[in-house]
Amino acid sequence: xxxxxxxxxxxxxxxxxxxxxxxxxxxxxxxxxxxxxxxxxxxxxxxxxxxxxxxxxxxxxxxxxxxxxxxxxxxxxxxxxxxxxxxxxxxxxxxxxxxxxxxxxxxxxxxxxxxxxxxxxxxxxxxxxxxxxxxxxxxxxxxxxxxxxxxxxxxxxxxxxxxxxxxxxxxxxxxxxxxxxxxxxxxxxxxxxxxxxxxxxxxxxxxxxxxxxxxxxxxxxxxxxxxxxxxxxxxxxxxxxxxxx
Amino acid sequence: xxxxxxxxxxxxxxxxxxxxxxxxxxxxxxxxxxxxxxxxxxxxxxxxxxxxxxxxxxxxxxxxxxxxxxxxxxxxxxxxxxxxxxxxxxxxxxxxxxxxxxxxxxxxxxxxxxxxxxxxxxxxxxxxxxxxxxxxxxxxxxxxxxxxxxxxxxxxxxxxxxxxxxxxxxxxxxxxxxxxxxxxxxxxxxxxxxxxxxxxxxxxxxxxxxxxxxxxxxxxxxxxxxxxxxxxxxxxxxxxxxxxx
Amino acid sequence: xxxxxxxxxxxxxxxxxxxxxxxxxxxxxxxxxxxxxxxxxxxxxxxxxxxxxxxxxxxxxxxxxxxxxxxxxxxxxxxxxxxxxxxxxxxxxxxxxxxxxxxxxxxxxxxxxxxxxxxxxxxxxxxxxxxxxxxxxxxxxxxxxxxxxxxxxxxxxxxxxxxxxxxxxxxxxxxxxxxxxxxxxxxxxxxxxxxxxxxxxxxxxxxxxxxxxxxxxxxxxxxxxxxxxxxxxxxxxxxxxxxxx
Lengths: 245, 245, 245
Hints:
3 copies of one chain form a homotrimer. Chain A folds into 2 domains: 2-109, DNA Polymerase III, subunit A, domain 2 (DNA Polymerase III, Chain A, domain 2, Roll); 128-238, Box (Proliferating Cell Nuclear Antigen). Helices cover 17% and strands 45% of the residues of chain A. Chain A is α+β, with helices and mostly antiparallel strands. In chain A, the strands form 3 sheets. Chain A has a 9-stranded antiparallel β-sheet. A 5-stranded antiparallel β-sheet of chain A has the order 5-1-7-8-9. Chain A is elongated. The first copy, chain A, is built from 4 helices and 18 strands. The A-B interface holds A 72, 75, 78-79, 96, 101-109 and B 136, 139-140, 142-143, 146-147, 168-175, 179. Strand 13 (170-176) of chain A pairs antiparallel with strand 9 of chain C.
C-alpha cells in the first residue's frame, strides 16, 4: 500500500537528483518515509536519498518497493503547476503508479526491480569535512568545463580549491577558509574526479544553499545536502580517478 | 484590387492558424472581408477562416484570389513591432503582394492558385456540442504527448474526457459537466484522432479562451473559435482514426 | 609587461567585435592603450579596434603583442558577473594570460602571433558619409535575411537605402534624409555586400546607438562606431561584391 500527496517542487527536486545517475530507480516506501538508493550503470557514483513522511502533504505506506521510470515521472511533473499538489497511489492490481495532477490522471506501469541492485554506501573514513556554498561549486564547475574533463578537489587547513588542468590552460577556484561555512582539515588532501559526474550532481542541488563535502587523498568524495526544507537528506558518493603523473 | 492595413497580432494569429495545415494558401479577398479555406496535403484536416472587414484597420477589395506563401508571410511578421500596423497591397502588374512595415517594403511574389483545391466543409450532423477552455485542451494534449500518438475525445451527458493509451501507460483529462462552459450530449460518443494534428490545431489558438467542439461517434471533430476580438471566425475539421480493437 | 583591470561588459563588447572576423587575434598592448587589427581568413573584411587606457579600470603596458584565443576569452567572460571587474595579467615566464574573475583564476596559453598578418586599413577615398541608427541597420538586415545572401547599400542626396533582391521577392529599407543623423552625398552611389558579413558586423555593435558609414560606388564600406562610452573606436571595412547585370 502506498498513497501520498506531494508538492510538485519537492517531487521535482527528488527526481532531478536521482536522474543524474539512473533512468529507473527503486523507491522504497517505508512507513516513515521514502528511501531511494541507486548506483549509476558505470558504478562510478551512488546516491542515497531519504524523504521523511513530513516532507509529503499526505503519506501512507506499509513498506513496499516500487520500480519507477524516472523520465516518465519527469513528464508528469511537467503537467503540474505550482501550488497544486500531486497525488500518487500504487494500484497493486495493475501494478501501476497512478498520478493525479489537477484534472489529469496518469497511469504509469511500474518497472521490474529484480535486476536493480541494493547498493550500500561503503563505510569510508573521510578525514576532511567542509561546507561550501552551492553557488561557489557551480561557479567552479562552469569555469572548469572549458578546460578539462576532470576536476581536482583540494583541501588544506587554509581552504578549499577546485582545479582543472588542460594541455595548455588551467583554471582554479580558491576559497580561503573565511569564505567557507566550515572546514575540518588537518593536512592537504587531493582527489581527482570526472567533471561530468561532479557537475551533474551539483546541478541537481536545487534548494540547498550549502553542501557539506567529505573528502580524502585519492579517495571518493561525499556530497551531503538537505532537500524539502530539511525534511529529506541526500548523500552523493563519487569515486575518484587516478591522477596520472 | 486589394489594399489593407492590419494589426500585426491579427495577421500573426491568422497565419499561425493556416500554417498548421498548409505552406501556401489561397486568400480570397472579398468585398466584405478575407476568407481562407485549406486542406492539408494528406487530406486529414481542413480549415475555414473568415476575417471581416472590421477586423482590419483599413480594407478595400473587390473580390480576387491571392496565392500566398505562408512561411514568407511569417518572416514579414517577424519585422513588425506591436502597435505598428502592417500595410498590404496587391501589385497586379507584377503579381506581388507588397507589405509595408515601418520603413521596410517587402515585395512577395504570389504563388499560382490553379493547383489549390477549393475545399467545401462537408455537411455533417455532429450530435455532440460542448465548449471548453482552451487552456484545458492544452493541458490534456501536453499530458498525452508522452503516452501515445493518438488521442480519444469522449463525451457523455456528464462531461468530457481526453484519453491517450500507450502500451503500458495511459493518461486522461476528465472535465465533469460543471468545468465545461456548455455541453449538449445525449449519449456517449467517442472518436480517436491523430494527436499531432489535434495538438497543432489547439496550439494555433492564441486569443480565444473558449473553443466549441462538435463531435460524434467515430466521426470527425469540429473546433470552432473566434479570432481578432470576434471580428473573425475559424472552423477546423479533423478526420477520425479507426480504433483498432 | 601587461597588467589591467576591465569591466566585463567592455571586454565582452571588444571580444564580440573581433570574433565576427577571427578566432585568434593579436592584441597590441601599447603604453596608451590596446589596439587590435585583424583580417578575416577570406580577406573580405577587416577590423581595427582601439581602446584607450581610460577604457580600463587599471592599465599598465609597455608595448608587447599577445596572441589571444578569442573563443577561450569568451568562456572567461561567461564566468563574470556585472559589477565585478576582470583582472588580466601577462605571465611572461609561462607565456600565458592570467585572468582573475572573482575567486577564479584562469590561465590561458597565448597563441603564436608570427603567422598573423599586420593588416593596414587601405587608404580609400569614400565620397559618401552618413550616420544611421544601429537599430535601423538591424531592422534592415533582419528583413533581408529571408530574401537574399546579398545586400545593396545605396545612398543619394535624399537618403539611404538597404536593398535585397531574390529571384522572386525583394525587400528594402528606405531612410529619407530626416531619419538619418547626418548625410554627405553628392550623387547616388551603390555597392553590393555579402549579407552574412554585414549582418555579423552590425550585430556585434552592442552599445553604440549610431554608426557612421563611409561608402562609394562599387566600393568598400566602412563602419565606424565607438565603444566603452567613447573610450574606444572601431572601424570595420568590408569589400564589395561585383553586381552581376
